[in-house]
């Protein structure tokens, strides 16, 4: 038995946990960071970074396939998946090493092993008792399945999808949310047949409806098949593949079924309930300052109900470290967290959808403008189609920006400043947008909503 005492103990070293550790150490706290796997968590090892590397390799394949229309003669000979994996793992290894170095340089103590909360101030890791004046719960999430749908063999989640060393011929994807459409994008670019099954009426169903519809058109054009508003009933598998049955009775044959129906909180059997932490369906309940009902115990990242995104986890981690240090940081609501889906085409948004804005402010108080990327020079050069939609309150601030098109994720910075700072389109419209960039399209949408459409 050994005992270790810190100012702050953090259970889980993913985006939320390690960001809290880095900020707390900067603020002079001693930190014990407990991790059962690898610091960096889901995002670095099996989430954001590996999938974005795959998406880049998919974009390169598309560029080779489509090169002739730009006057470049290249042929796509094939996809060497093990080589793609080596490229991807190289990025992860380098970022992992950098993070380990930073944690060490900041004097943060990492404790390897599976932790369990045993009191509001202690976490047990094997024989070690780790005590802190404050504790942050940051244990993240896991790929969820549906009741009765067992993962194994040809029925896989995103984690097994990352382990594949070949391009499947045909994949069925259960779930048309971010993870489902991103993997579909990769496999389609690499030549696979893809069919997505989504219970809701749209792909990327959390986005503004106009964006979802445009996304569906783009996916159809790419030859990605999808079935909307349909319920999965069951799947059988053998050596040759899977047969997926829908409630309608329709069946789909494929090599694999990717289950991408969302992520559940990793909170079972970790002592949270025993210590009295209030929970709801496995998620840890907090107030807006991320305090649980147990004094001194905070929660961050994917275990807190709301958007499950790495930058939200980072922001939570930094917020709680500053909160504990008494700096009274500003609360950022989930509504104003930027979201990007890195498929081809990309989708990026921040703030209220048109439907939500109308609900909140009343239809007459909302003005919205859709800028068609066909009018933007850089979009022509990139040969991308799409829209940039800006929603404002009449005579008031920008409350939502929704975009679809190649690389629009890179435009979300300005959009999120506008929404988070309650900027009026009149404030932003006079700002310069470099030419030729797709950023100009955002500028033009602001101009139009300020009553001065330049080209419209
Ligand atoms: P995690 O990153 O899951 O970290 C939790 C850590 O806690 C893990 O390292 C785990 O090993 C550890 N842990 C759990 N229990 C214990 C215990 N008992 N003892 C010790 N350690 C424990 N987000 C984006 O913003 N952009 C993206 O492009 C993006 N792409 C994604 C793609 C995929 C395929 C997936 C699966 C996710 C993606 N995400 C993306 C989501 C992002 O990865 C998560 O939102 C983020 O990792 C959440 O951070 P977290 O700190 O809450 O949890």
From TrEMBL:
Its cofactor is FAD. Keywords: Cytoplasm, Disulfide bond, FAD, Flavoprotein, NAD, Nucleotide-binding, Oxidoreductase, Redox-active center. It is found in: Cytoplasm. FAD binds at residues 52, 115, 139-141, 302. Residues 337-445 form the Pyridine nucleotide-disulphide oxidoreductase dimerisation domain. It holds the Pfam family Pyr_redox_dim. Its EC number is 1.8.1.4. Binds 1 FAD per subunit. SUPFAM superfamilies: FAD/NAD(P)-binding domain, FAD/NAD-linked reductases, dimerisation (C-terminal) domain. GO terms for cellular component: cytoplasm. GO terms for biological process: 2-oxoglutarate metabolic process. It catalyses: N(6)-[(R)-dihydrolipoyl]-L-lysyl-[protein] + NAD(+) = N(6)-[(R)-lipoyl]-L-lysyl-[protein] + NADH + H(+). The active site is at residue 435. NAD(+) binds at residues 175-182, 198, 262. The keyword Cell wall biogenesis/degradation does not apply. Disulfide bonds join 43-48. GO terms for molecular function: dihydrolipoyl dehydrogenase (NADH) activity; flavin adenine dinucleotide binding. Residues 6-317 form the FAD/NAD(P)-binding domain. Belongs to the class-I pyridine nucleotide-disulfide oxidoreductase family. PANTHER family: DIHYDROLIPOYL DEHYDROGENASE (PTHR22912:SF217), DISULFIDE OXIDOREDUCTASE (PTHR22912). The active site is a redox-active disulfide bond. This is Dihydrolipoyl dehydrogenase. The lineage of its organism: Bacteria, Bacillati, Actinomycetota, Actinomycetes, Micrococcales.
